[in-house]
Specification:
The relative contact order is 0.12. Helix content is 59%, strand content 8%. By secondary structure, the protein is an alpha+beta fold. Strand 5 and strand 6 (299-304) form a beta hairpin. Helix 4 (97-124) packs across helix 5, helix 4 (97-124) packs parallel to helix 9 and helix 8 (174-189) packs antiparallel against helix 12 (257-286).
Amino acid sequence: MREAWALAEPMQRYELVGCNASPYSRKLLAILRYRRLPYNWRVQDPATLPSELAGPLRLMPMLRAADDKRFECDSTPLAQMLEERHRDARSIIPDDPAAAFLCHLIEDYADEWCTKMMYYFRWGDPETARVCASWVIRDLRPELRGAERVAAERTFFQRQRDRREMVGCGPDNGPLIEAHFCELLRALSLLGGSDQYLFGTRPSLADFALYGQLFQLTLDAWPQAIVRRDAPLVENWVYRLDDASGVDGAWDTLDAAASNIGRMAILRLIGRCYLPFLVRNAAAIANGERTVSLEIDNRPYAQPAFKYQARCFREIRRRWNTLAESDRSRLSPLLGETGCLPCLNDSFT
């Protein structure tokens, strides 16, 4: 056994560049840890990477394998790339194609809608925003001192506060976002403990996407107080996912009670808010409109139209339409019950 171990060729290390305050950086970092893939984690602004190593789109996180010349960005395709490269290394995509579709749908919801919760709570409250601005600058620019660091913190504070309307988390949308955050916490609490995940006793891509946002929401003072008051199990769940390299488990069947009750609660949120928003956003982009406006849970919601989120919707529809008919038939009742099905079958696109 010792000889076999000694002769085994070590796996090449990935290089991950990002920031601790970035939900997508933490998402990918947690995925690498769970999958036991060797990596070097470097807190660094991707804008400072040499041009020969990074393309024009420098978004956190950026990842490069040892045999790659350049870094790539965007946590979702990076996670999918890791799936392709390491098919047998603790996959985070359920084996069942129907469950895999739900996993990708919930991941997209976490990345594109739950991030509004993170941004709203972090930058909406001035005191929370000041603390985070200071943290980010100290993390990314440790060489700054004195007045230079204070100036950088003030600039970053104001920049992030000014972007709230663009992200869709200005004060007018606040009541809706706060209500949905509390509902998400209740949904995750239904899993019943820190050792239960959305598709079984092993974490999925959807769990890690939610973790990325909730890692920030359980650190920032305002949302942390809500979590600790209303959903303490969720905080335990988040910290367990931070390094799940020692977690083993199995996928549930699609209708298993242990994971299904929490998953269904999240799908109801997606059917009521996220998919209707994606439909309206895609229509706005197609019609050349600059603003998306709709009513969600009897509250008005508005934000600028985003091409990236129109791409997200096309990808969700592509995955739905390429599922085998038998898998769509299995999913249609629960997607109908949660309000997701009409948006998936919407024919305007």
